[in-house]
Specification:
The complex is a heterodimer of chains A (about 210) and B (about 300). Chain A has about 210 residues and is an all-alpha fold. Chain A is built from 12 helices and no strands. Chain B has 2 domains: about 120 residues, Glutathione S-transferase Yfyf (Class Pi), Chain A, domain 2 (Up-down Bundle); about 160 residues, 3-Layer(aba) Sandwich (Rossmann fold). In chain B, the strands form 2 sheets. Chain B has a 4-stranded parallel β-sheet. Chain B has a 4-stranded parallel β-sheet with strand order 6-5-7-8, with helices on both faces. Chain B is about 45% helix and about 10% strand. The chains are: A mainly alpha (about 210), B alpha/beta (about 300).
Amino acid sequence: MGDMDQQMLDKYRNNFLHEVEEKVDDGDWVKMCMQCGVCAGSCTFGPDWEHTPQKIFMMIRAGKREEVLTSSSMWMCTSCYNCMVRCPRELPITHIMHGLASYAHRLGLAPKNQPTRDFSLIFWENCTKTGRVNELRMTISVYFREGFISGVKKMWTLRNIGRGLFFAKRLNPMELFVSHGCKDKDGLRRALKKADEIEARRRGYAVQPRGYSS
Amino acid sequence: MAKREYAFYPGCSSQLRGSAANYLVSVESMCEKLDIKMTQIPDWNCCGASISYAGSSELARHVLSARNFALSDKHLPGQDVVATCAACWLGGRETIEKLDASSQLLADTNEALKEAGLQYKHGTEIRHMVEVLVEDLGYEELGKPVVKPLDGVKVAGYVGCQTNRPFGIAGESFENPMYLDKLIETVGGEPMSKYEEKVSCCGGSLAFCEPEKAEKQIKNIVESAYDNGADIICTPCPLCQANVEVYQSEINRKQGTKLNMPVVYYSQLLSVAYGGTLKEAGLDGHIIQPKKLQDIAVKVVPGKR
């Protein structure tokens, strides 16, 4: 990861905007931002962002590579798409935020233990295992991501919700052992592995190891 | 033969004993009354939702959605794909839009899908269940099977995000979409026309990883419903439903509030109004009991039973 960060630094030198345009999903839109700030005022978790999308776009153009890629801001996106539909320049802001977060993670610069980053990784691992989400295992993985004791505490705190969902027939304890899934999960996993190879080829990356890539 | 046929993409949360299991149940009973035939896409897979961006590439996510379209095309040719989940629908529409716009992305997706012996072809449509209701049937048609109008039930129509943005329902505004209120009216309920949190975000999947921030959103959504005098919140999105219903007890525990507002799906309102039982309308699937709806569901209609 660190190697790739250095490689990109060498390649793009001081032109972070150019790097974002080439490497980040929908990054070629960043130059279109006119700094009106509507996105900043429309954001669900706006008050919790260190840098609003508006600021992130300006920081990219100002070459603040490290500050942008190590920021926790992009990880605050709830995918509500409010910024995107309100943007007068029609920038796909939600996708750019996801793209920046994804790129920061790929370079190993995303903040350590960022809860949304961790959840995102857990979700992808979970849903690609059998082709469908195992909600119980996903929830347990999220709660236990900071260790066993804190996991037990969280589960204990939320025990009434768990019990309520169980009696409402919306939670199945058997999912610990048996998952819903696709019959052709092997075919699906082969297709995803191939997709990663193609992506790596197109963008000049090394293929990232995933659950299905071995 | 059913009047209308669609390829059904229920999504992970709607599966048996999933967090939105009662959504599926109510959709099935609603569709039966409306003479809509929904055939599940054989072997459908997860759409990847909006949260998997750190763990996946954009291409991999398109492959997920394209696989469902390819399967639908193969087994249920000519039928529109209908999703009940907001995220499934949104993900699918994004894939169609992107693959239509880029021949390279299309070629890459098909190169990957070949590994599963499938091919995505241009021309598939994915629609939200609500689109089928309001566009293909229309409010008038939807009103015909009503046998138990939801008289006196005050409903806060909570549209939320992903059934509303960025695509939304054609002809509706992003800031104040009216279709949910019209659906409520169609089945005899009273929509809360001044409900301020109609299109606010519940925190989405970040309720898992940033619970405090999401709970702030949820509290506003529920309190606004109370302020408007609503008996019940109604939503078209399975994640909105789960978040807004399930975390009220957590907010109460942490903040000493007494929130106890039931949250149901539009399909449950329709199912009850069409004479569905508690079970058929999925009203046995709640943590906060939607009492008013349950009462109507168990009420015997003179001459009908």
